[in-house]
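User: Some background: our group keeps a shared notebook of sequences we're curious about, and every so often someone picks one and asks for a predicted structure to add to the entry. Today it's my turn. The entry only has the sequence so far, pasted here. Could you supply the structure so I can complete it?
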Amino acid sequence: MKKRALISVSDKTGIVGFAKALSSLGLEIVSTGGTYRTLKEAGVDVTSVEDVTGFPECLDGRVKTLHPKIHAGILAMRNNAEHMQQVEELDVTLIDVVCVNLYPFKQTILREGTKLEEAIENIDIGGPSMLRAAAKNYKDVAVVTDPADYDRVIEEYRQNGEVSGETKFYLAAKVFNHTAHYDTLIASYLKDKAGLPKYPDTISFTYEKVQDMRYGENPHQSAAFYKEVGNNSGLLTGIKQLHGKELSFNNINDTHGALELLKEYTEPTVVACKHSNPCGVASGKDIYEAYTKAYATDPVSIFGGIVVANREIDEQTAEQISKIFLEIVLAPSFSEKALEILTKKKNIRLLVLDDIQRKQPENAYDVKKVSGGLLIQDIDSKLLDEKELTVVTDRKPTDKEMEDLLFTWKIVKYVKSNGIAIGKDKSSVGIGPGQVNRIWAAEQAIDHGKKNISENATEGAVLASDAFFPFSDCVEAAAKAGITAIIQPGGSIRDKESIDACNKYGIAMVFTNMRHFRH
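Assistant: Of course. Here's the predicted structure to add to the notebook entry:
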């Protein structure tokens, strides 16, 4: 019995060659609408679906393949005698290959100005039905949805006159992955349009692969990088690598932390990061000054770290960068001279990101994998509400201190809890991340400033804490270090203890009434 292939594709990449190859191998080609016309014009011997079903395409193309003669031909189990008797009685011709890809729903919704009605019309009905039917009956039907698989199917037909069971199963599994992705895109789009709850009873996410990682968090772990579907300009998934070896899991994770902090600043700013924590942050009149100030914060920890900048890396800055080992330098661009200098270092990775100031949408999710499930929350998109800022001490901060407090509050938002950041003159002085108690974080930040910059580096500096002070010990340490102003969320039942200590030492303290735990 002559085999039959049904072909109906939106993405016509390689389809003419695939159809011609199948036809040359003795398969009858059946097709629909635009695919039928494309194949016919290319000289392929092709039969229309209407000739098979005896029923015309109707409802502006909404109904083409939704017919028993198509679905029975796909779903009939060849080793089931009753099925075979029924298809013979019903004059159904078996379909052995289904080649379908779906209406371009993603491309439609990503186009600026797309209306709901247009999106709805690009929800494929017949395509997913055929794909799922063929995948369900994979033992008898080869189902192809990815042009990358055309050659594999043709080669097996040439070699064996049939597609192997192993390949059919592989193709079927690929189909269900594909339709799940497609349906999740539709569900997500309609959820937002219809105003369904942000945290519904069930939730699905879909991502598209960017690349395999060099390795995971450790070399014995594998990893890959996936992106959300949408406009990725200015987001980490939009990076372009200009130089260096392939990226690892830690490279991406650490760059993410540095980049999100960088986006809090509009002046020329550099963020140096190590193990997802900032180790040097500074703004300057230009990117060279910003880099040299950030480097001076912690010239030890920056070694082997990541540097992100919100202005072009120029020759002068590149000369300084080239003096140390860095894993990554990310910027909106590099001058020709800067590239010439930095590409001499084979191990450095140079990344470019357009629209580097663009932030994630406020309705985005922050997702953390835990054993057996997911934790989902809003992203921490707010820095503070200036109307909620409260001076709680007798002394108010000076304008200069307030400028430094706000600068340093941005830093501590991105420091792992318990976190303390000390800053002065639009530069970090010392950072204490990820301690199990707050005084250790404060002591570490003070110690870093004194050792890495100078013994009096903390004199006249300000301190930011990601959460409230449960005791006055951090104020005592700050006063001893010469720190003159503190910003913290407030909200402890022992706030008065810290306020009294600040008043005792003449330190100005501001409450933000917003904390920034980072776990």
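Suggested note for the entry: The chain has three domains: 4-194, 237-352, 386-511. The mean pLDDT is 91.
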